[in-house]
Specification:
This protein is of the alpha+beta class. The chain has one domain. 13% of the residues lie in helices and 24% in strands. The longest helix has 8 residues. The termini are far apart.
Length: 63
């Protein structure tokens, strides 16, 4: 496995968020900026779950 593949496997792709984090957008404020995709707002309030169309990160509303 290459170093790039190993790094990709270590990237967190599942996140739990609270209503206080809304409105939800990806990437999140704590994410690295240099390799980030354009900010996209995600509608998580209806189903309690959302998936970023750019990077595939999955979000779950916990409260």
């Amino acid at each position: 496995m290459s170093q790039a593949q190993a790094k990709e496997n270590q990237v967190k792709t599942h996140f739990q968020v609270r209503r206080s984090d809304l409105p939800l957008h990806c990437p999140m404020p704590q994410d690295s900026k240099w390799d980030a995709h354009p900010r996209v707002f995600l509608d998580i309030e209806k189903s309690g779950e959302a998936k970023c169309p750019y990077c595939g990160a999955e979000y779950q509303l916990t409260d």
